[in-house]
Design a protein that fits this description.
2 copies of one chain form a homodimer. With 223 residues, chain A is α/β, with parallel strands linked by helices. Chain A has a single domain, classed as 3-Layer(aba) Sandwich (Rossmann fold). Chain A contains 9 helices and 11 strands. In chain A, a hairpin with a 2-residue loop joins strand 9 and strand 10. In chain A, helix 1 packs parallel to helix 6. The two termini of chain A are 21 Å apart. The interface between A and B is large, with 45 and 45 residues.
Chain lengths: 223, 223
C-alpha cells in the first residue's frame, strides 16, 4: 500500500504526479493500485491552488509500505505538527520507505529522519533548508536523492521522477519504461535541477556540460 | 477564470498538471489564481487512481475564459454525456479558449469542435481516434496542437506543456519561463510524442534526429 501525505495548502502536483505514476505502473503490471491519500485531519484538504482533495486519517495507514510526503506553501505547519511528525517517525521505524517531494523534505527533516543523510529539496528553498538543518548532507543539484530507506526530490515535477525510480525498484526497468511512455515522459531526465534554476546557476555555476548535455539524470543513491 | 473539466474516472494528472501550472504562473504575476474544477455532477469526483477531487457544477462557469478538459479511462462516458457536450459547445461559441489533455480530445471531438481542425491525443489512442473522427486533421506526433481557439495535447504530462504555452500567450515568455523553473521543468521540451511511444516509433518511424536531438518541441499552431 502506498500512502500520499498531504496537508492544508499542499502543492497539488506534488501529490498528483507520484499518484499517477503509481497508478499507471500498477496498470502496466496488471495489478490493482493500492494507494491512499492521508492527512492529519481526514476529509477534504485544500491545496494551495484552491482545489480540494479527499484524504483519510493516519489510522488507516497500517498496510503502508511506501509513504510520499507532498510539499507546498503549508509545509511549515505540517512539519511542526506533532501528530504528523510522530506518524512519519513511526512508519520510518517500521522500515517503511519514506519520501518527500519538493518542500515535503521539511517534514522529514523536522522528524529527524534526514540527519546525517543525503537529501534535496526545491532549489528555491536551498538556502533556508541548509541553514535550518545543518546535520543534513544537503545536495542542491539533484532531481532526487536516496539514502537507505529515505528518498527526497527536487521541486514539484521532480516527484514524478522520484516515483518512477521507486517503480523501477519495485517492478524493474521495463515496467518503469512502460509507465513513462504512458505518461509521455522520459524515464530518466538528464542533468540536475540547476538547469531549471537561475538561482542555482548563479550560486553553484555547474559546468556547462552538466546543464546542456544529455545523459543520465543526476541522482544520488546510497542503499 | 480558468475551468478544469473532470468526470468519473478522469486521469488525476491530466487535471493537476495544468492546475499547478496556472497556479504557479499566477504567483509569478503576483495575481490571485482564478480557477474552478467543474463536472457535470457537483461534488466529489473519483479519478481512475481512486483519489477524489472536489468539483462544482457547470452553473458556476459564467466567468470562464479558458476551459481545459481532462482525459482518462472514463472519457467515453463523458464524451457521450449531452450535458457535458452542450456545455463545451456553449463555451466554444462564446469564444472561450477550449483545450483537451490526453484523451480529453474525445469530448471536443464528440462536441464537433475538432472537425476540420488540427488535433492530437495520447499516442495509445491514435488508431481509434482517427477511425472514429475522420474529419479531424489528426497530428500524431505533437506534444500539443493549437488551431484557433481550440487546443489539444498528447498524453497526461503533455497537459503541462499545453498549459505553459497558454501562460506564454497570456503573460509572455518571461512569466512562462519563471513558472517552468518553479515547476522544475523545461519551458519547451524537444521533439514530438513519438519519442515516448514504442507504438508510434514503429508506425511512423520518425527521423532519428527528431527523436534524439534537442531543439524546439514539436508544436502545431495556427492562430
Amino acid at each position: 500500500m502506498i500512502g500520499i501525505l498531504i496537508f492544508p495548502d499542499f502543492q497539488l502536483l506534488d501529490a498528483a504526479g507520484p499518484i499517477s505514476v503509481f497508478e499507471v505502473a500498477a496498470r502496466c503490471t496488471g495489478k490493482t493500485l493500492a494507494l491512499r491519500v492521508l492527512a492529519a485531519g481526514a476529509g477534504l484538504v485544500r491545496s494551495s491552488s484552491g482545489v480540494e482533495m479527499m484524504a483519510r486519517d493516519f489510522k488507516s495507514a497500517n498496510a503502508i509500505t511506501t509513504l510520499v510526503i507532498a510539499g507546498g506553501a503549508g509545509v511549515a505547519d505540517a512539519a511542526r505538527c506533532e501528530v504528523t511528525r510522530a506518524f512519519v517517525q513511526r512508519l520510518a521505524r517500521r522500515g517503511v520507505r519514506v519520501a518527500s517531494v519538493c518542500s515535503g523534505a521539511y517534514v522529514l527533516a523536522e522528524a529527524g529522519l534526514l540527519d546525517g543523510r543525503r537529501a534535496t529539496t526545491h532549489w528555491g528553498r536551498t538556502r533556508d533548508f541548509v541553514a535550518r538543518y545543518p546535520k543534513v548532507k544537503f545536495e542542491p543539484d539533484q532531481i532526487f536523492t536516496r539514502d537507505g530507506n529515505v528518498w527526497t526530490s527536487a521541486g514539484i515535477t521532480a516527484g514524478i521522477d522520484l516515483a518512477l525510480a521507486m517503480v523501477t525498484e519495485d517492478h524493474g526497468e521495463e515496467i518503469a519504461q512502460q509507465a513513462a511512455r504512458q505518461l509521455v515522459l522520459y524515464h530518466r531526465r538528464s542533468g540536475g535541477q540547476s538547469q531549471f534554476s537561475s538561482l542555482l546557476e548563479l550560486k553553484h555555476r555547474p559546468a556547462a556540460s552538466a546543464r546542456c548535455c544529455p545523459g543520465r539524470a543526476k541522482i544520488s543513491t546510497r542503499r
